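Hi everyone, sorry if this is the wrong subforum. Our group has a chain we'd like a structural model of before ordering constructs, and none of us has done structure prediction before. Sequence below.
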Amino acid sequence: MMDLRDGTELLTVSEASSPETTDSSPPEAEQRVTWDNKAQYLLSLIGFAVGVGNVWRFPYLCQVHGGGAFLIPYFIMLFLEGLPLVYLELSLGHRFRSGTVGTWRQVSPALTGIGIAMNCTSYIVGCYYIIVMVWSLFYLFNSFHDPLPWMTCNGVTGTTMMNGTEVKVSDICNSSTSKFFWYNTAVQASSDIEHPGKMIWQLALCLILAWVILFVCLVKGIKSSGKAVYVTAVFPYVSLIILFFRGVTLQGAGKGIAFLFTPDVKTFVCIVVACV
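Answer:
Right subforum, don't worry. Here is the predicted structure as tokens:
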């Protein structure tokens, strides 16, 4: 009703007790923090699609499993499993706007375990990928040396561990100085898990730095990670472009490209390739 004396709108008793008018708090979904803009959301998706694995893991798998032959099962699984699962994940996230556990609980309480398993998987992958970041930081800091430490063996003699086998340093250096730097300086692998060896303080410091960087990116949720994706999502593409032009200018690049896009039928039917 309207009070004609001061023009102030008054509520009746029934209107005042109505839940639509008394409950002014927004629903839980509206209280969640959102992206600052659509560009941050898009870049975050791009960042998940391309990462360190595209730089070092994918080319290795192509080389080991037959080049072009590997691309056939890869694209089959991409369209049959990869893209549908990505679309499912984005659709559920957009609909429920909750974490993995909350999303699957809203779909069905019986599916809560899927959300818990996804969290556990993310934790395991995070602990695994942080080591790749450590190696990247380690090589970044060593790249400021002149000459580059992986360009020479620096007169080192004796033996070192390589894939669990003791080999002569001279044999590795004659094969590849970068391989020697990887096994002898970066990894320093021991003979077995029962003999872990000494702690490599350079890698330990890089590990701490990597966790600090991760913490800074995620400390405020998507408010901080949304700012970080401007770098983390763009940098892999910049690296891939640089590596592409570097690769095509190397000797024998044409043969490598031909090997990549020429499938080997014998390798394709191999069970190892079919299961990758």
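For your construct planning: The first strand starts at residue 159 and ends at 162. The chain has 16 helices and two strands.
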